[in-house]
Design goal:
- By secondary structure, the chain is of the alpha+beta class.
- It folds into two domains: 159 residues, Alpha-Beta Plaits (2-Layer Sandwich); 60 residues, no CATH class.
- It is 30% helix and 27% strand.
- It has six helices and twelve strands.
- A six-stranded antiparallel sheet has the order 5-4-1-3-2-6, with helices on both faces. Strands 7, 8, 9, 10, 11 and 12 form a six-stranded mixed sheet that branches.
- Strand 11 and strand 12 form a beta hairpin.
- Helix 3 packs across helix 5 and helix 4 crosses helix 5.
- The radius of gyration is 17 Å and the shape is globular.
- It starts with a strand and ends with a strand.
Length: 231
């Protein structure tokens, strides 16, 4: 797996990082096998500048190899520079799974609970051989980009912005159709996996990243379930 982290790509009136990440994933799908795109929440603090929620996005490529990582980096960089937003501070990180050691994961976990710095992110990436670059402004986006990659690589953080055809699902849908759209499991909060039934929802579902799978959590009974929103 190769992880592409992006952050701080927007301003208060522009399109968000989530939309940009989905557009990039669509572009990359013509060159690589895209597994999905996840959103990761970071620490919200008065000393940290952010646009709305201080979250980053990570594109998961079901690929491997240094050459692939470099190609993905260059293509993503070109796309981001072509959609640069004035007032943003974008950062880009591309890492192969084997490069993501405990230091990267701990950095990612730290971005959820405390203030971390750009020099820390740059030092970790350099020591691990991870591709990292700021693409404008203060370049503080490298912090969330690396943090998101560390969190995504655990397989237990964040939610999917898109995976396969999940964004095409809306309204009423059977669980079997949900699974065909790209959701791996539908689970209740008390640990039961649902294999049949229907769900009603107002917008496309955002399953959680659990054990490297797309897991949609629901609550209810008697085949009347609603989606539980989780970060």
């Amino acid at each position: 797996m190769i992880y592409i982290g992006i952050d701080d790509t927007d301003n208060l009136v522009s399109r968000g990082t989530g939309l940009l990440s989905r557009n990039i994933a669509k572009e990359l799908s013509g060159h690589f096998k895209v597994y999905g795109v996840t959103r990761h929440q970071h620490f919200v603090h008065e000393s940290i500048p952010y646009t709305s929620h201080n979250s980053s996005a990570v594109i998961h490529l079901d690929e491997s190899g240094e050459d692939v990582a470099h190609r993905a980096f260059e293509l993503t960089k070109q796309f981001m520079l072509g959609d640069f937003v004035e007032g943003s501070d974008p950062g880009l990180v591309v890492a192969q799974k084997e490069q993501i050691n405990s230091s990267v994961v701990v950095f990612g976990l730290d971005t959820k609970i405390k203030v971390v710095t750009q020099p820390m992110a740059r030092s970790i990436a350099k020591n691990c051989g991870i591709l990292l670059e700021g693409l404008g402004g203060t370049e503080d986006g490298v912090i969330g980009a690396l943090g998101g990659v560390g969190l995504a690589a655990t397989g237990y953080d964040g939610s999917f912005l898109t995976k396969d055809k999940t964004r095409q699902i809306s309204g009423s849908c059977s669980i079997s159709d949900l699974k065909r759209s790209g959701i791996d499991r539908v689970m209740t909060l008390d640990g039961r996996e649902l294999l049949d039934g229907r769900l009603e929802f107002n917008r496309s579902p955002n399953p959680s990243l659990i054990k490297s799978e797309a897991v949609l959590f629901v609550e209810g009974s008697d085949n009347n379930y609603t989606i539980v929103k989780r970060q």
